[in-house]
Amino acid sequence: MIARNSLESKVTGGAERWRCTTIHWLIMGQVLLLLPHVLRAPNWLWLYCALLMGWTLSRAQSDRYAMPSAAKLGVVAIGVIFLWLSFSQWFTVMFWVGLLALMLVAKLIELRSDRDAYQILLLGFFFSLTHFLYSESILQTVYTLACLWVLCATLMLLQSPPGSLKGLEPLWRSSSTLLLAIPLLIVLFVFFPRMSPFWTIPLDKNVGVTGLSDRLVLGDIDRLVRSDELVFRATFLGEPPPSRSLYWRTLVLNELAGSDWRWNPESRVDFVPAVSSSTLSYTLVTQPLSIAFVPSLARVQRVFGEGVRVSPLGVVKSHQALSSVAQYQMQSELEPAFDESLTQPSRIQHLSLSTSANPITRAYGLALKQQWPKPRDRVAQVLNWFEREFTYTLSPGTVSGEDSIDTFLFDTKRGFCEHFAASFSVLMRAAGIPARVVLGYQGGQYNPVGNYIEVRQFDAHAWSEIWIEGVGWRRVDPTSVIAPERIEKGMTGMIRLSGQTLTDATWRYLQLQGFAGFYQLQQRLQALGHLWDRTIVNYDQSEQWTLLQRHWPKLDTKHLGLIGLVFFLLCFGMLGLSVLLNRRGGERVSHAHRWHRDFAQCASLDPSNPKVRAKGVVEIQEVWSKLSPEEAELATNFVHEFVSHQYQGGSGVLTVTRALWQLKATLLWWRWVRPGKRWRSLSRA
């Protein structure tokens, strides 16, 4: 009689190898669950968890007694205290993830029975949700499913008789259970009401996110271009515009404080641009950003998305920082003609300069105003000066201090886009032309596989906007006259043409594009990730209703819950029926009966014959050898594996099944395919 011992005997006794196997699988599942958070939590936490896992393993393989209750409490208390000291505040996501990880591993020291093992597994299933707190990518999803696969295998091993599952057999057995859950998963995903999950709450999710800020200090964008982090992907309704037209406006900095530019909203009235007959429609899928602004082309006419609006400065603003992957639909004009006027308070704001900073620049601007009465002529003179004497470089050095604009314009003359935009705007204000700085991204890389434009942090850019009477706000990009290849070819093209190099993630990313095969594979993987973000991650309530209306136009919202319930019951019923069929007759008897039946058929014997059912596989092989010795010899391997599994506890279920399939394939070749084949009917016993 086979009886399943409790885990208490598995841990405290530890005599049989199979009793330690469950412990090994439990710890392996925990290690896989903790890996995605290794770089986020303090190192001591993982060392602490490793010590607890090591103690559990040593206890499983020896006769060591369980830890006293006071010692258990002390171990947990020490971990919680160190965790509290490692974080400045409790209300952060990573603190609670670390606490949950500590509790998950610390539960091992209480492992004495099957009940404790089940609790660890259930806690592991819950802990797997923390993977999506920081990433919802397809790779993270696949990895989390692999973790769930291991947990299900451990659960399968815990429920199986001793020795029945060996090696990787728990994985193969649990895979059938996961496959049965896929229809239910699809039904719940499509029909279950869409609600914002708790892991999109922006507590500390944007900590460490590289991106633009609502102020500009010389050197900020220079640091951004050293990062290859993805910012957004844009899909256009028609042909994507050329790189020189892709100015993604994100922030408008209209307030100058010393040498720093800051964002300051002019009013609380929403900006409504004039309606134009020619628009550019596109869809943006943004990654988590550290600001509450969404990149857009020119000035947006319309924007569709959750919690966003067009601000008075013509940029798209969200009610909170973009903490998760989001999708927005927009309509813009690349060269809009706006019917707007500049109010007197706004004119004063866009002409204000510090009376003590950058005296040389202010004097030069005043001279330009006196020499060239027309604003267009002043702009042309400054751009010609920039084109002749200034140099675009990826390593501009540090320019700081109250008179940093003077230092740059009349001393170093080597800079990045932010240096040109900031100094040009200050000079325009000094020359009597209202000006401001715009932060965003320029260009992007086209992915022909997914038919979208991909913008990364190294595409960050800064340019100026000036006010011209009778025309309105117009973009002026000094970088375009100093380094036109940056605008025409984008940052990646400019790097290749100029030959400038840096040892950062951006340049490693660009160097990998030199390998054609790898680059094509990279584009396919990125297109797959973009499809995942658009269809799965952004499947919200509106997307759900659009999908259902597309296939069922007459569907009413009040029937949605009923349809989901019907599908749920059908899938649940199919799953329950499958479980009942698998349990019928017992696991071991069912396998042995099926193997015996198939082996009898291979020997051309009638498995329903009582005389055949009374014979064992060894006796069937003996009968078979009298009728066809050559064919019976082919069954030696299966007979050996069957006897080892059934009577010696050696071979596993998969091993015997594999041997049976090999026998069937060999017989098929032997009887029908091999040269000189000769089929002979065997007498039935």
Give a summary of the structure in a few sentences.
It is built from 27 helices and 19 strands. It is an alpha+beta fold and 685 residues long. The chain has three domains: 161 residues, no CATH class; 303 residues, no CATH class; 87 residues, no CATH class.
Key words describing this protein structure:
27 helices; disordered C terminus; disordered N terminus; alpha+beta; 685 residues; five-stranded antiparallel beta sheet
Can you give a write-up of this model?
The protein is α+β, with helices and mostly antiparallel strands and 685 residues long. The chain has three domains: 7-167, no CATH class; 215-517, no CATH class; 587-673, no CATH class. Helix content is 51%, strand content 13%. The strands form five sheets. A six-stranded antiparallel sheet has the order 9-12-6-2-17-16, with helices on one face. Strand 18 and strand 19 form a beta hairpin. Helix 3 packs parallel to helix 5 and helix 4 (69-86) packs antiparallel against helix 5 (93-106).
Would you report the number of β strands?
Answer: 19
The major β-sheet equals: 6 strands, antiparallel
Strand content: 5-15%
Q: Are there runs of 5+ residues with pLDDT below 50, and where?
A: 1-5, 8-18, 198-203, 267-272, 585-589, 677-685
> What is the count of structural domains?
3
Structural class: alpha+beta
Mean pLDDT: 79
Shape: elongated
Within the largest sheet, what's the order of strands? 9-12-6-2-17-16
Rg: 35 Å
Number of distinct helices = 27
**Overall helicity:** 40-55%
The first-to-last residue Cα distance is 32 Å
